[in-house]
Structure formats: C-alpha cells, structure tokens
Structure prediction request, 206 residues.
Amino acid sequence: MSTPNDDRPRKRFVSTVVEVEGRSETKVVELPETEPAPWGDDAELSIVGARIPRVDARDKVTGRAKYTADVQRPGMLHAAFVRAVVARGTVTAIDASAALQLPGVVDAITASDLPRPMRAGGLPLFGTAVLYPHQPVAAVCAESREAALAGAAAVRVTCQGEPFVVTYEAATAPGAPAVRGVTNVLRGSPAVVERGDVLLALAEAE
Prediction:
C-alpha cells in the first residue's frame, strides 16, 4: 500500500509461461516500476530482429583491426610450451641446451628453475608426472613466436612411459591405471538421474 507522497517505486507483476521437459506452468514475475514495460506482440522493434551494421566490420575485413595477438610491446618475448611425448608416465630428463643455441631464443624454464613449487589447474606446474598427452613439461621464451616454437621443438624430453587407457570402459575396469589418486571415477559420480521411459519416448518421436 502506498500514500500520495510515497515516492517508492510501485511493483508490477507479469505472467509468463515456462516450459520444462514438456511440462508448462505459469510463473508470476515481480517487476519494479523502474523496469521497462515488457514488449507486447504489437511492439514496433527497430533493432531487435533487424540486421545492424557492425561499427568494426570495415576494420576487420580490411585487416586494420587490432587483436590481442597483434599487440607488440618493446622488448616483448614470446613463449611456447614443451610438451610430453607420452600419454602417461614420468619425465626423467630435460635437455634444453640445443634450444638455447638457436637464434632468438632467450631462455628455457623447467620445474627445477621455479623459485618455489607452483601449481596450475590443481597440478604441479611442469611436474614430472605425465597424466595426459602433450602435457606441458617446460617452456621456452624467445624474441619471436617462430623462434619460441623452434626452441620448444629443440628441447629433448626423456620420458618413461607407463600403461594408459583411452576408453571409458577401460578406464573404469578393475585394475585400470589410475590417472590421479586410486580411481578414475570422481567422488560421488556418476550421478544417475532417470525420469520417464526414454526408449519409449525415442520410439514415439518423429
């Protein structure tokens, strides 16, 4: 209830139909007075549903637009990862001497060069345990992207390969090699939710 001198925004209620998994129900949504009125079926829309010229279109198609990869700062270096050559195993040695001799290569970094143990995505950065194919195990920085890629390719990584699996059935079979921990199944999973008759619905579907 409001008084004539009450400047608080009055609330409005809008009904909308929500459909979830084949079930329709009417929801009442509360809108403050400051909220724009919902569009009706007879609303004249000049932007929604129309083709609007993009202000950056000409710069993009002519190559003048600048992207993050186009930014060049004074003294900027480029980095490239050195990746494991096995799908699962242990890194036993990394030799970056050949890479450091290439033109444009500034330096290479491995786990032993880090000032302290660091983690990325919950895993040790440049850790010796290889848990998936092409896992980063080192990095090379250089004066250009091409030099960084060439330097990364010149780093020699020695790995001791271990058994691995590539299918769900093999990964969840008894005795399967575990990637992390003692099992390949996440705690509390899989969460199976069943509703209705899926096979019947598929059979009756168009």
User: Anything to note?
Assistant: Residues 145-154 form the longest helix (10 residues). The mean pLDDT is 87. The two ends are 53 Å apart (CA to CA).
